[in-house]
Structure formats: C-alpha cells, structure tokens
Amino acid sequence: MPRVIVTRPAREAAHWVQLLGERGVHAVALPLIAIGPCRDAAAEQALTQAHARLAQYRALMFVSGNAVFHFFEPNKALALDGQALAAIKTRAWAPGPGTARALEQAGVPPGCIDGPAPDAPQFDSEALWQQVSGQIRPGDCVLIVRGRSSTPQGVHESLGNGRDWLARQIEAAGGTVEFVVAYQRGAPHFSAREVALAQQAACDGSIWLLSSSEAVAHLAEALPGQHWGAAHALATHPRIAEAARAAGFGTVRECRPALEDVVASIESAA
C-alpha cells in the first residue's frame, strides 16, 4: 500500500496520521498550511466583541476545527461554563465532522451542533446549508468564524468559495451575516528534512492527501521548479482536485473527506 502524505495543518494532520495508522495505512504529516492566532489589535477587539454578543446570533458557523479552537481558546468559559450556547439557544454550524468534533471537544453540547448529513456527497457549505436553511428567519444574524491568509504583501481576508456562497444564501433568506477572524493561515517553513520528503514523495508513488486549494498553492511555492507529473493526489473536494491538476499533478483522484472513503480510495490505489 502506498505511503500517504497528510497535508492538513499540524493539529489535524497528527490526528489523521493516527487514524490512518489504525487502519493499516502508512501516513506521514507534512502540513502545508501554518496556523496561528491573529495578533493585530483590530482582530482581537472584534473577537472580544463577538464573544460578548453571542446571544444576538442565530448561529455561529465555524469554517474549520482551527476556527473552533481559536474562537474558544481566548475565553474557554464560553463553551465550558454552563454550556453557553445551549443556554442562549445559539446554534453551532459545522461544515464537516472534523469541525463538529472540535466543537464537542471545546465543550459545545452535541445537541447544539448542526452539520451535513453523514451520507452527504461532500462536507462543505453547500451540504451544511441543506440542513440549516430552515433555521433562518428575517432579521436573524449568523456569525461566520474564519481565518485569514497571510501573504508576502500582508494579509487578505477572502471568504473562500463556500463561505461566500453560504453568506449569499443566508441573506437571500432574510438574514444577515457578520464575519470574525479567529486565526491566521500562512505558508509553512519547510525544514531540510521536509523539503527532502516532499521531493521524494513527488516521484515515489506516495499519495498526497489534499484537503485545501491553498495548501496546493503553498506546496508549489515551497518547491519552485519541482515537476509533479509523476505525483499522485487524492483530493477531498472537486475544487481541490482542480487546483492539483493545475499544479501539474499527474494523477488526481477525488473522494469524500470521510475517513472510510479516504481509506477505500487509498486501498484501491494499492
């Protein structure tokens, strides 16, 4: 069975390496997105204000497990002290099971969490909306908790295709949307060992498990001039598969981001 290169941010990558190992898959972590808190004063102030206004929101939509971690980490009492979301009847929306698991780990009661159906073709904003659209009434406000990307020129706060689409659906249903930045994404700084691992995995039959188009871009930036024609990618969303093909990956397959589907796709490639 081929080796799998798990490219999620460090916290999730370690979890996936463990899960895949338990299923007999040899996996190693090579995070292609670095995650950290936002340290500028404006972002911190906006986050503090959001914490103080939870009762005003119909729902909090967390774009990822990192959004959960960095939203609750500065004020753990929000989730852990008296089950705050349940008390104020604010829903927590998760686009996939990883985010839902992070919410539960933060202390949010499972009964307050909404996400895509377990058999949804994808775990994304579109699948989430199918489950939560009936919650929105005119005047309801949804807070989308997200990250922002750093670049050599500074930072940018693009919403991403899914979040932009979700915001439009909420507004079309009569609701309003606010955004708060809870963490910052950036390109990884590869060590010499990681560069060697990436170069080897580009041509030795390893499967690159790709869960972000941004990660694909970071990989290309980290290894300029690297030929990817012999590389194999397993993408967990059609948009990510498109990015992998554009980057030059010779073989690109798609699968749902659920563990069972990922393992099945890996085993079928053996």
Features:
270 residues; alpha/beta; 7-stranded mixed beta sheet; 5-stranded parallel beta sheet; 12 helices; 41% helix; 20% strand
Give structural notes.
The longest helix is centred in the N-terminal third of the chain and has 13 residues, at 10-22. The protein has 270 residues and is of the alpha/beta class. It is 41% helix and 20% strand. The radius of gyration is 19 Å and the shape is globular.
> Structural class, please?
alpha/beta
Distance between the termini: 5 Å
Question: Helicity, in percent?
Answer: 40-55%
**Count of strand segments:** 12
Oligomer: single chain
Indicate the proportion of strand residues.
Answer: 15-25%
Low-confidence stretches: 152-159
Helix count from the secondary structure assignment:
12
Largest sheet: 7 strands, mixed
Topology pattern, helix = H, strand = E: EHEEHEHHHEHEHEEHEHEHEHEH
Give the overall shape.
globular
Q: Average pLDDT value?
A: 89
Query: What Rg, in angstroms, do the CA atoms define?
Result: 19 Å
